[in-house]
Design a protein that fits this description.
Layout lengths: L18 E6 L10 H14 E12 L3 H8 L5 E8 L3 E11 L7 E10 L6 E2 L3 E4 L3 H10 L2 E6 L4 E8 L3
Parallel strand pairs: 1-2
Antiparallel strand pairs: 2-9, 3-4, 4-5, 5-6, 5-7, 8-9
Amino acid sequence: MIQADLLTWTPPETLRHGAGLVIAGGDLLPLFTEATDLERLFAQAAMLLRSDGAFGIDATLIDADLLSEAASDSAWSEDVRWMSDEVGEVRRESRLLPDPAGRAGCAQLQIRHWHAGDATPDQRDPFAIRAWGPAELEHIAEGVGLHLHQRASADRLRWLLRSTHV
């Protein structure tokens, strides 16, 4: 098994078209805000797959209109609470902010953590996210030699893409 960043890793020639499965996990699709980066990810996966190989994707399916609507209200909302042996209760909150570049389907996500007893939260800088439509992703996949083989539930983007490499 190889764990690598498909955007920066250059696989050796011996691995090309030899993998049976490549997985893009970790809910990473919203972190790709530019089509060229997503095309590179898909192309790298396709290049690694053998002719009967599969590229698996699992990500939250985000509606672009709802993302835009939510970004217009900058209020913080609680996502989750948990207990930590080190600091006690931790509360994670997030909020969406409008995309400073005004890109359609994009917003800024900001996350903060409140630790028990803290007067101020551990707050992260906002980062860009994008709502990708299934048709956009399918078009990118087909452009690099992958086709949709299996689709799962509507609330998530769970696809298995098959290689068309011969």
